[in-house]
Amino acid sequence: MRLEKWKLQFLAIGYGESLSLVGSGIVQFALIWWITKYDGSASALTMAAFMALAPSIVIGPFAGTLAGRLKGKYVLVISAGAGALLSLLSAILITSNQAQVWHIDLLILGRSLASAVCKQVMLVSLSQIVPQKNQARVTALNQALLGTGIVILPAVSAILLAFLTVAQVMLIDCLTFGPFAAAILFANIPSGQRCRPAVTQTFRANLRAGLGFVTQHRLLKVMCLQTVILNALLTPALVLLPILVTRVYRGDVLHLGSLQVAAGIGLALGGLVFGFVRMPLSRIKLSQIGLIGWGIGTVCVGAIPAVISNRQDRFLLAVAAMFVIGVTHVLNNAPLAAAQQAVIPPELSGRVFTLIDTAVNVGTPIGLYFVGAAGDVIGPASIWMGAGLMGIFTAVITLFIPDYMNFGTAELARTEPIHHRPQALA
Length: 426
Prior knowledge:
Elements: H1 5-38, H2 42-67, H3 72-95, H4 101-129, H5 135-163, H6 166-186, H7 192-195, H8 203-215, H9 218-239, H10 241-248, H11 253-276, H12 283-307, H13 311-343, H14 346-378, H15 380-399, H16 402-405, H17 410-413
Helix pairs in contact: 1-4, 1-5, 1-6, 2-4, 2-14, 3-4, 3-6, 5-11, 8-14, 9-14, 9-15, 11-13, 12-13, 12-15, 14-15
């Protein structure tokens, strides 16, 4: 049976995206592990995380528009080529014993910049190639690919680093570039003119419209504030996981990979549970119970070494706790997103979600700054326990706010201003 033309193009891009995901994921893991072993301080890891996030914060809101104006396939190849060259430079510096932490930080920044551009161009390209009726299925396949990467890549990276040097692992990104470039150049990706949207709104206008809706919706403000606070705590805690493993759990790279795999499996299972099992609780109540579970798991990861002396036993318990964190993270986020979509009018959804993403992206570096300073003083275990306790505290508080528990339901719709009431709830 002959494949339709768009399917061939999608397979080519999907193959290229898979190679890019593998190369980038392994390199990122390797660089973080090198910083952990070379420096081992919380401030060094949080600075590396900031460098990785900075391109998304700065160009993320504009990247979609820029991607629609550029020639897709050439941008993809050039950005991936730049990332491969930076990986090669990293390998040379590390092999020659000339690498310093600030060198690696700059290389992470450059790779993240190339990756941010590549990601947006990939999204725009797929939206132009795939017919409208098939885009939901393609999106699901992309999510499945990303989820598989979350589960598999930490394990693969850890195994590679157990047998190879960091410099040798860095060369994997260079090896994947050739097949990636061949696949992308084969695909017939639309040019900038064809990708250019018919109607373009500036980021400032979108932000102003989203802010106007959020500021007049009391409960949505509470939800946004909670999301920003939790992400500002969660991301830095995850950044300090390598130090937690090496210093507190006395583990190695295989232990780190195992913990990340456990969290990835939890994420995948949580997605399946929420996607196929009908929950008897309201969206927000389920979300806050998931947040309490996430907080308990996070506290346990930080507290286990203090109460369990046997090294193997405490590591197995930490794996179980990371699995719980993965499952409950989905149970917290998925119902929350569904409640937001039910309340926010469709014509404003993109603008409001852009505002929320912007707030989260700005809040995360602030969290990284304070955690980087505090992590070297109080230790990574205390940071994990503090993040978990804050999550539990905010969830318990919201459980006693009746209006918040009805967020996204018909009961709330009757209390909202008429001009803010979504069509679906009218």
